[in-house]
């Protein structure tokens, strides 16, 4: 199993996941994200869907910075029992004002570790 690209414990509030919308590493997309929407999906290694098309955020449209705060789904994760330390695949889905779709990153999945609170 690879090392996680991002890890968080349930209950952590200091930092969420942020990333730039890129079509390749270091190459930003050219589309204007003003008025775009962002969703995210997260699956475990075993293919269990933890979250599918949940709300994410466009933190800064001009720089194409996207973000997601895992605590927005923390209660659902705890209630479902599906969070227990999972390392899973994460992707953000963008829809531009022109209805164009893009998965971010679109060249690989991010590996995310979600650990229980202590």
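Q: What amino acid sequence fits the structure above?
A:
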């Amino acid at each position: 199993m690879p090392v996680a690209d991002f890890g968080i414990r349930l209950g952590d509030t200091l930092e969420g996941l942020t990333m730039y919308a890129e079509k390749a590493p270091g190459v930003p997309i050219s589309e204007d994200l003003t008025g775009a929407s962002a969703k995210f999906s997260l699956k475990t290694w075993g293919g269990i869907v933890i979250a599918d098309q949940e709300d994410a955020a466009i933190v800064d449209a001009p720089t194409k910075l996207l973000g997601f705060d895992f605590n927005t789904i923390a209660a659902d994760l705890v209630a479902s029992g599906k969070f227990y330390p999972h390392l899973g695949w994460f992707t953000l889905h963008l829809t531009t004002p022109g209805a164009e779709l893009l998965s971010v990153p679109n060249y690989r999945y991010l590996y995310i570790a979600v650990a229980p609170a202590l």
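Q: And what stands out in the fold?
A: Residues 19-111 form one domain.
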